[in-house]
Amino acid sequence: MNNHLSEHQEKDTYESEEALERNIRKAKTTQTLDAAANKIGDFLKSSQPRMGKSTHLHRLDKTPCG
Question: Is 39 left (phi over 0), alpha (psi -120 to 50) or beta?
Fold first, then answer.
């Protein structure tokens, strides 16, 4: 009986360690994505919008079909 109990305790410990590691990975991923979003937000706040014609679209208008 004690053997079965110790096996269950070991299994529970292993599963909880896996869950802890999974949660740590999730937290790190969230931090990385938040940092990237903050960088994008800072860039958009500090940069001026670019106005003008796109040369690519202009070229497409003059390209003959077929």
Answer: alpha
- Enumerate helices (H) and strands (E) in the chain, giving the number of each: 2, 0
44, two tokens? 């958009």
Q: What is the pLDDT of residues 5-46, one digit of tens each?
A: 787 777 778 788 888 999 999 999 999 999 999 999 999 999
pTM of the model: 0.53
Which amino acid would we find at residue 61? D
